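Please, does this match?
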Amino acid sequence: MSSEQSGHSARKLGLRRPEPIFPVRDHDAAMAFYRHLGFRVRPYDGGYGYAERERLKIHLRVNPEVDPFANPCALWVEIEDIEALHEEWLACDLWLLNGPITPDINAEARE
C-alpha cells in the first residue's frame, strides 16, 4: 500500500537516482566496452568499477559465472536525444538486434 493510499505522507529522505550493478565476466573487457561507448570508466579494485556518462552511473562487478547471453539484467534510461546516441553508437560497430538472441546469433557472437 502506498503512502498516498494509507493516508500517510512519505518523508523526503534525499533519495537519488538508481545506480545499477551489472555482473560482467571480464572486468577489463567491460571497462573497454563502456569506454568505447563514450563512458568515463573508473576501476575501483580488481573486480569492481564504474562506467559514467553525464548523470548515468553503472557499477560493473566481476562474476565469472555470468553468461552474457542468458543474463536478464536490463536498464531503461530516459534520454533527450535518442537519435544522436543511436548515430553515435552505430559508429561504434555494435551489433544491432531487432529481436531475441537466437541460437545462431548466440553461436556467432561467442566466436
